[in-house]
Amino acid sequence: MRYYGWPTYVTVAERRAKAEKQLEKMKKKGVAVQPVALSGRKIAASFWGKGWCEQMESFSDYANRLPRGRSYVRNGSVCHLEIAAGRITALVSGTTLYNVVITIEPLKASTWEVVKGACSGKIASLVDLLRGKLDDSVMEVVTDRKKGLFPLPGEMKFDCDCPDWAGMCKHVAAVLYGVGARLDQSPEMLFVLRGVNHQELIDVTAAVADATRAGSSRRRIAATGLADVFGIELADTGVAEDPPTLAPPKKGVPEKKSTPAAKKSEAERTAAKIAAVKKVSERHVVKKSLPENHLPEPFTGKILYAWRTSLGETQTEFAARLSLSAGCISQWESKGKKPIGMQARSRLLLEKAWKATHKD
């Protein structure tokens, strides 16, 4: 029943029930639905999530509409939200299920250069970047209201198929808050949205220098150590141990001259070491003649990206499927057409997931 031309009020429970029915239909059609689910009243808790919400709330143009959006996202009305380069698509439950599209201009090249300049030599870890563990000077630049990574009102366009004539309806406002919640889980999606590569902010040289200074000057950094430093995974490599330190000969004691027999013995030991290293290396060589349900060889970043997107999953969701970190997935996908080097354990996890998603 309508009163004075306004539609009958629909309770939150009724909206959810309707939305769930429609989402079930979408799932049956193969659509990978990504709802925004909050664990409590707080919409965003991370550096990037809170930064996004604070940026949206800082504009007076949005002041009247954002509060309704907060209510909608808190009661679970954002049934689906997907972030891609320059575009946010979402489904919001209202009187019916509304389609929301937000287009965002890519970050200006000049702004990105300023951000990279501010970060130069100050971010040594992908994990630190995504967790928002940044130097104060870096934080000041990336969160700058007008020249930071977050978009301005003039860089965003909203579209919702609801009957509300306003530029920003409550459904759009709910999606904007939903983006803040999503950045808590997948902070790398902010960089995807703005069309820039977040790995350009990481100073690998500084990370290696910091790691080597932490230990003795002679100690090498193991592959697992580097993985912890960068928040990514490095390929299996044979790392030779440091040669033993030779004590200087004592005064008055003549040095022993090497005899032919000693030289032969030394040559045999060297050959044995080479054979042992070769044997270890051969263990990690993947045969190219693999069945169809095995990983393609060579396995490239382009293949990984195509696989993930065919499943309709974000890097974080895909990483969870593989029991790996989102940083690994991001690093591997950045390889493009180049083969991915990885540890034996990771290859086994990828093999298992590949078989599960490529069943005949």
From TrEMBL:
<dbReference type="InterPro" id="IPR010982">
    <property type="entry name" value="Lambda_DNA-bd_dom_sf"/>
</dbReference>
<protein>
    <recommendedName>
        <fullName>SWIM-type domain-containing protein</fullName>
    </recommendedName>
</protein>
<dbReference type="GO" id="GO:0003677">
    <property type="term" value="F:DNA binding"/>
</dbReference>
<dbReference type="InterPro" id="IPR001387">
    <property type="entry name" value="Cro/C1-type_HTH"/>
</dbReference>
<feature type="domain" description="SWIM-type">
    <location>
        <begin position="139"/>
        <end position="180"/>
    </location>
</feature>
<keyword id="KW-0862">Zinc</keyword>
<feature type="compositionally biased region" description="Basic and acidic residues">
    <location>
        <begin position="252"/>
        <end position="268"/>
    </location>
</feature>
<dbReference type="InterPro" id="IPR007527">
    <property type="entry name" value="Znf_SWIM"/>
</dbReference>
<dbReference type="GO" id="GO:0008270">
    <property type="term" value="F:zinc ion binding"/>
</dbReference>
<keyword id="KW-0863">Zinc-finger</keyword>
<keyword id="KW-0479">Metal-binding</keyword>
<feature type="region of interest" description="Disordered">
    <location>
        <begin position="240"/>
        <end position="268"/>
    </location>
</feature>
